[in-house]
Write a structure and sequence with these properties.
The complex is a heterodimer. Chain A is an alpha+beta fold. Helices cover 38% and strands 20% of the residues of chain A. Chain A has 22 helices and 21 strands. In chain A, the strands form six sheets. In chain A, strands 2, 3, 4, 5, 10, 16 and 17 form a seven-stranded mixed sheet that branches. A five-stranded antiparallel sheet of chain A has the order 12-11-21-20-19, sandwiched between helices. In chain A, strands 1-8-9 form a three-stranded antiparallel sheet. In chain A, a hairpin with a 4-residue loop joins β20 and β21. In chain A, α16 packs across α19. Chain B has one domain. Classes of the chains: A alpha+beta, B mainly alpha. Chains A and B meet through α1, α2 and β1 of A and α8, α12, α13, α14 and α16 of B.
């Protein structure tokens, strides 16, 4: 059968010949349509205009806080664009532009040369004031390859207050274009924070229109293109942040270096995340100027650093709750265990390890030792453990791990292993003494604020936490997506959690506790102070706590760099924040009812 | 050479020379003679290769089909690893003097392979059909991954006319192609409804064998069932990428621009054109890739309707000669190959010219024998050489 019948074959070849002729006729018909019927129309365009498709930039989606208040929006701004292919050949136009814009001709050329699509309108100056726009428009008869476009520019009403969470946008780099689809030179992309993390959702889809240029004529006008389309705004991102709490926390840290992290332990939602000093993300909205960038880079305290997730601090006495928990899990002690009394120091080998209180704490049990933060007690507990045990628990309790917050750039803390000590001090160049220091959160140990806050969430919950997250919903209406934290269970027994909690309650509630200033009426607060020695000046003051009014709960971690004692500096800040969160909100709710 | 060959070669050389002139016109301002000279070199080299291949025995050519096919697959995989291309694609090996595109070899070797395979089939069983699908899908998917949608589409279309010439009746061909037509029709509800009704009509009136109906319907149903699941599981940027594949004009800034500029250039050319080297759209520098994919727009602007028709008539003459030639060949392998080569040229001519006229999507295919480029030129001449070899020794095989 197959192909052997030559008559059938000839027929098939003939049919194919007719199909071929038909297809060629279709092409000839289309040619006739363009070159004869529509010739006049196209000749006119070709002789008098040139037509260029231009994108209509879509506004980025809004970012709102948990109450729906705007924390990042868009405003329309005017930008001046040029068609590189044509403008670069016309030095007179560039000269006029350079006079109007106050940019050098080379600078303008540089900006025009960035794109490989040389016929595509490319931004020369963004967010130009109205006076400059009118000057450009007056010169349109000469500036025939220049257009003024309206494009959305980011606006951050909270400025510095939320800078580290929201982040900022900037122009795409070549690497960005290579890595992500659909970006061209001069486009904006999220660089840091939520702006970066939620880039694909925040980014809208650009529209397209056609511009008819008349060389020697006036400004370009819209030309009706078949496939022009309207821009579509990006999706709204709903944060877990409470902007009022955030503002208040930022005020409390104003003028100091440090970080505040406020989490809802029941969900892992981040209610406030402050790092000071901050920066003004508005400066980046139109591409940051070299001068502003230099100023931020040279500013004291590295404002771009998000201390809450990117700074590793020695945790100091806050870590005693971890040491206590390890001791309890390992069966080395119970709530009532007493070691040798504290007389202001502990002799280990030929070295005296001092307690922070030179007069000593006398004889205390574990709960008391947490409450008064007795170093000597924890030296003795740490002596009964060993480094491998510390490391094992650090691993299974995720202290050696990222907290997994949905902000880019989180760093890991550092829980030293024996091999790390070997490389620091040489094989055998260190003694068991390092372990004593580790027990009170000193020495080489480093943790980030978010790691500590996350661990304390697990204590507050009784053995599990939800990964901290700043985004709770993306988009609105039926197509929105909810975001929740992932539940992480820690292998820790309820009895251990109970003892640690009891000690932490004593810190705040009892008269001898170091965190008394975090105490507020009607709210149960359990905390731990920390005063971390560090090689760069005064001690870092820190305080961690969880609080509950039976209805809502909050975990706070506060660190203030080079400020002194945790109990004196950090705990009062916690007190004010808790009062604001539990009391003022309650008052407000009552008023609404 | 006999008359048939002479006419075909003459048409080829004239159309190639028009190409050289158009390439010179569109590149002379920035590159002088260099592109035109290089293209002339490819034509000369292609012609010589054609003469060389023409001396080979068809038996030998049939025997190397499978190794060539495997070689093309290997090169397609290699190009994904070490290849380069525009905008981060991986389409060619940069050999300095030539950017060798393995996808061009893949087109030729697929036709060879299918001709070889089909010439050994006595009937069309399910296994035969499955093997044809497999032989086509591997290179098509590799090319799609580069990504190069245009070439992948060409590779995907080629087997259906070849099944047709191998004796499968046209209803069966359409039926077998239906899953792919389904994908193309999934862009909107109306084309899809038309397609679905036609498919049902085919099943009811086509009197196909039960196994064939169940097989094709299974593939169709599979495509409908799996597509939304895959679609849902994709990240946003991956969806955008696929969208850009299916509807390039809508998503790619460049595509809309290219089509418009090309239409202005061709339309403003009129009947007689603006005169050689006098194109103005070109002078604005607004038509990109004018010496490669959009070379037809230069001809349209400068030589007008007459120039365009000349190119189309010459190419149509070539296709006609090839079809006549096919009718005179004796071995099934050479008939199928000759037919496949004809269709390969026809499909590319139609998509490329259609693209410059705005009636086909911008997918990036060369205009055979006219666009600038060494890989496609050499492969096409070699293809012609294979056909001529068969014609010369038609009594031997």
């Amino acid at each position: 059968m197959v192909g052997d019948d030559s008559a059938a074959l000839i027929l098939r070849l003939k049919i194919t010949g007719f199909v071929t002729a038909g297809l060629v006729a279709v092409l000839a018909g289309a040619l006739f349509d363009l070159q004869v019927i529509k010739h006049g129309e196209y000749r006119e365009i070709s002789e008098n205009y040139y037509i260029i498709p231009a994108e209509i930039k879509a506004p980025r989606g809004d970012i709102v806080d948990r109450n729906g208040d705007l924390v990042a929006g868009s405003r329309q701004a005017f930008s001046i664009c040029g068609i590189p292919r044509r403008l670069l050949r016309n030095s007179k136009e560039i000269e006029i532009l350079s006079n109007i814009l106050g940019m050098s001709a080379d600078e303008i050329k540089e900006r025009l040369k960035r794109t490989s699509q040389s016929y595509r309108p490319t931004v020369i100056a963004r967010d130009v004031d109205f006076r400059t726009i009118s000057m450009v428009e007056e010169m349109f008869s000469v500036l025939t390859d220049v257009i003024v476009i309206s494009e959305p520019v980011r606006r951050y009403p909270l400025a510095e207050v939320l800078s580290h969470v929201v982040g900022y946008v900037g122009e795409v780099t070549e690497a960005d274009i290579e890595k992500h689809d659909g970006y061209g030179v001069g486009d904006l992309i999220g660089k840091v924070g939520i702006e970066r993390d939620c880039e694909t959702d925040l980014r809208g889809s650009d529209g397209l229109r056609y511009l008819k240029f008349t060389p020697g004529g006036s400004s370009p006008v819209d030309f009706k293109g078949k496939d022009s389309k309207a821009p579509r705004k990006g999706k709204t991102v709903h944060l877990t942040i409470d902007n009022r709490l955030q503002r208040f926390a930022a005020e409390l840290l104003a003028g100091r270096r440090g970080a505040i992290t406020a989490l809802d332990p029941s969900t892992g939602e981040v209610l406030a995340l402050v790092s000071t000093p901050g920066f003004d993300p508005n400066l980046f909205a139109t591409g940051i100027s070299g001068k502003d960038w230099q100023r931020i880079l040279e500013a004291d305290g590295n404002p771009l650093l998000n201390r809450a997730i990117q700074s590793k601090y020695p945790p100091g006495s806050v870590f005693k709750i971890v040491t206590a928990a390890i001791g309890l899990e390992e069966g080395k002690l119970s709530a009532k265990t007493r070691f040798q009394p504290c007389y202001g120091g502990y002799r280990f080998g030929n070295r005296l390890f001092a307690c922070w209180k030179p007069q000593g704490h006398g004889s205390v049990d574990l709960v008391g030792a947490i409450a008064v933060s007795c170093d000597v007690y924890f030296y003795q507990l740490a002596e009964r453990l060993d480094l491998e045990t510390f490391n094992r628990y650090a691993t299974i309790w995720h202290l050696n791990d990222l907290a997994g917050i949905d902000l880019p750039g989180e760093v890991k803390g550092f829980v030293p292993r024996p091999s790390d000590y070997d490389s620091l001090y040489g094989q055998g160049g260190w003694t068991k003494g390092v372990q004593l220091n580790l027990g009170i959160g000193q020495g080489e140990l480093l943790l980030t604020p978010i790691e500590i806050a996350t661990f304390v969430c697990a204590i507050a919950n009784g053995g599990y936490y939800y990964t901290p997250h700043c985004v709770r919903q993306i988009g609105d209406g039926s197509r929105s997506r909810m975001k929740t934290g992932k539940r992480v269970d820690l292998p820790i027994s309820q009895s251990t959690v109970d003892v640690v909690r009891e000690g932490m309650l004593e810190v705040v509630e009892s008269e001898r506790g170091t965190g008394r200033s975090a105490r507020i009426e009607g709210v149960k607060v359990a905390g731990k102070t920390g005063t971390a020695e560090n090689p760069h000046g005064k001690d870092h003051a820190s305080f961690v706590c969880f609080a509950s009014d039976g209805d809502r709960r909050l975990v706070l971690y506060i660190i203030v760099e080079n400020a002194g004692h945790g109990g004196e500096i950090a705990a009062p800040i916690a007190g004010k924040l808790l009062a604001r969160y539990f009391r003022d909100e309650k008052a407000a709710e009552v008023a609404i009812r | 050479m006999r008359n048939l060959e002479k006419t075909a070669v003459a048409a080829l050389i004239i159309v190639s020379l028009i190409g050289v002139i158009a390439i010179y016109s569109s590149t002379k301002d920035r590159a002088g003679l260099s592109y035109a000279l290089k293209q002339g070199l490819w034509i000369g080299l292609g012609f010589s290769l054609m003469l060389l291949v023409r001396r080979m025995r068809t038996r030998t050519l049939a025997a190397i089909s499978f190794p060539t096919y495997i070689l093309s697959l290997a090169l397609l995989m290699l190009v994904l690893l070490i290849g380069t291309g525009p905008h981060g694609t991986k389409r060619w090996f940069d050999l300095g003097f030539l950017r060798f595109q393995p996808s061009e070899l893949a087109k030729l070797s697929l036709v060879l392979m299918l001709a070889h395979y089909l010439s050994h089939q006595r009937s069309f069983s399910l296994a035969t059909i499955l093997k044809v699908y497999l032989v086509v899908l591997i290179p098509a998917l590799l090319v799609l991954y580069e990504p190069d949608l245009g070439t992948a589409i060409v590779l995907g279309i080629i087997p259906f006319p070849m099944l047709y010439i191998a004796g499968l009746d046209w209803l069966h061909v359409v039926f077998l192609a239906s899953p792919f037509i389904a994908l193309a029709c999934s862009s909107g509800p109306i084309p899809w409804i038309i397609f679905a009704s036609l498919l049902i009509a085919l099943v009811v009136f086509g009197r196909f064998r039960v196994w064939l109906v169940s097989f094709v319907l299974a593939i169709n149903v599979g495509i409908y069932a799996v597509t939304p699941i895959i679609w849902q599981s994709l990240a946003d940027y991956q969806r955008n990428r696929l969208h850009a594949f299916v509807k390039p004009g809508e998503y790619r800034f460049g595509a809309a621009f290219q089509t418009l500029q090309s239409k202005i250039a061709i339309g403003s050319g009129g009947v007689t054109g603006k005169g050689l080297f006098k194109g103005t759209q070109k002078a604005l520098g607004l038509v990109p890739e004018q010496h490669t994919d959009f070379v037809f727009s230069v001809i349209g602007e400068e030589l007008g309707l007459l120039g365009c028709l000349a190119v189309l008539v010459l190419l149509a003459l070539l296709l006609n000669r090839l079809l006549v030639l096919a009718s005179k060949l004796r071995s099934r392998f050479s008939i199928y190959f000759c037919y496949g080569l004809t269709l390969l040229i026809l499909i590319q001519v139609f998509i490329n010219v259609g693209m410059t006229l705005g009636i086909a999507p911008v997918t990036g295919l060369p205009l055979p024998f006219v666009s600038y480029g060494g890989s496609h030129m050499l492969m096409l001449w070699i293809g012609c050489g294979i056909v001529f070899a068969a014609y010369r020794r038609k009594l031997e095989y």
